[in-house]
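Can you please make up a protein's amino acid sequence together with its fold in token form to help me picture the idea?
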Amino acid sequence: MKKLPIYISLLFVLTCAKEDSQAPNTPPTQIVNQYTLTASAGDGGSVSGGGTFASGTQVSLTATPTSGYSFSGWSNGSTVNPLTVTLNSNTTITANFQVIVNSYTLTVTAGDGGTVSTEGGEYEEGTEVTITATPDKGYEFISWSDGETNIEKVINIISSLSLFADFGLKYISYDLELGHSQEEEIIKNMSITSNSNVMFNKNGITHLITNPANPRGEFESLLPTIHFTKINNSWEVSDFYDIGMSFGGRDENRINENNDYVFADHGTEVWLGGGEGTPYNNIWVAKNITENNIEWIKVNQHRSFYHDVSSGDLNNDGLYDIVAVHMSTNSENILDKIYYHTFLQNNDGSFTQDYDLMKFYGFQKPSYDCYGNTNFSDISNCTGIIRGSVLIEDITGDGKPEIIGGAYTHNPEWNTPEEVHNSFEIFSDLSGNNEYEKLNFNNRMGWWDYDAIGSDEIKAYDYDNDGDKDLFVGLEGALQSQYTDTATFNGVQIFDNDGEGNFSFSGFEIPFDDLRIARFDLIDVDMDSDLDLVFSAQLFIDLGTIGGVETSYYYNGNNSFFKNLTQNSEDNSWFDTLVDFDELIYYNENGNFYKKDYNNKVLIKKGKASDESIFQGRGIETLNATLIDDELVFYLFKTDLTEGSYDLKLNLIEYIPKTNE
């Protein structure tokens, strides 16, 4: 019996020891396990975080790359950095790094008229990307913004790059077969024709009249006037006319809705071509034009240096009459030396020169006899220097036309008195008896303030909608220097009408110091019921050609119309020519005129002969504009070589530009 208490005491001691090993009041089921997170870094970086934590703890690990490396991911597959790990067991994780490869952005966009195969993206350095430009129907690919013209382009990515694919509307080119004994000489002398080319549609047939000539040859140029017709989308020669338009037709004027035209020509300038004499020229009316015939009427009696011409009914008999201005004449008649020649139409369609319809101060004699006459106390009533332009138009709103003569250059060597220096000489039928007397002689203004600037064209249009017709004037010559045989500047200025035939310079002008403008037209190109300005040009030369064809601005990248010349892939003697027709259109927006960018760029194959070629300047030689079926059409004469020879051939290019959004 003595052993029992000892056993009970031992049991009590053991029980008390087991209870002492637990925290007070902690149930056995709440014991927390401890786990270890082991984090390590591969080559190229380091990692922070890791250690021993209670089960369920969220631990953050951060991978930090060293210079030249980038973090590529954790060994568990995650690429999140920092990474949050929830510990449920002992865990080992490694941060991986990689050597940095440069990454660059490629951006590719397409202009109107086409698409590109990719818009680009992010690429590693050294990646090759192929891009293809695809033109829409009616368009053609022109070039990439870096100047390359291949439609497919392979790029090796070495830096970030932006590329633009440029597209343009297609043009139509026609080979013109002349079949004339002077064919070679005709083709070589098309460049002067831009002064008087006319294209129009009549009775469903499109007509083109052109006057090739050698304007500054040693001898008078006697090449035929050519009448082309377009039927079933094919141009053919209708006929040749030997009327001797030996300066290519210095000016033309549309007479009426029947599409009759009057042409004035001043003749070959042989004195500038090494020849002798003054083979001045004539005025011709082309009337009753049909598919197979033009009726030509010679207007004048004496050859003169006719510089401009206009038509209108001056004597109220229902027939159109003609006034031309000249700078010299072969006639010995003192009355013919007056700078204005007036021709009244007879009932049979012929013309008679009239010496009485226009009345001049003091007597019917040339201006120099007037302002040189010591008996006249006020010579400001005398007409002034030679006229370069003329217009018959009602500018006072009384229903009767006026005759407006625009001054040419004020050469100081002529010693013309200041009192007779002017810009416009305006004559009106003040008494209503068909006699035109001085209305206003306006002072020199605008570019006329330069002695070497003169007018060559006048058109009337109420651009500011104030109820009277204002004057748009083409001027040419040289700024701040004496006039030379070749103009170095030209453009258009607008002169506002006060309603009574007094004009002032509006301040609006469009100058060109690169393009040789042939003429301008007022055409509603965007069909918004107002008239816009469209320019034609001589393109064999430009205003840089005074030093020779090789100095022309288009060969030196300074011509606004010729945007780019690139070597033709098939013939090193020719350039493909990127031209921009948007440079030639000024849109009328509430009386202000602006150019707009409608992407009217066209790449013309073999557009210019190389500056090292024997055919320097050949290729695109003329540019004119017209309205056919309510669409603006640019048309260009272009010379090319017959395949396998050095014989020139003639192309006609037509291009219909986009003129609206």
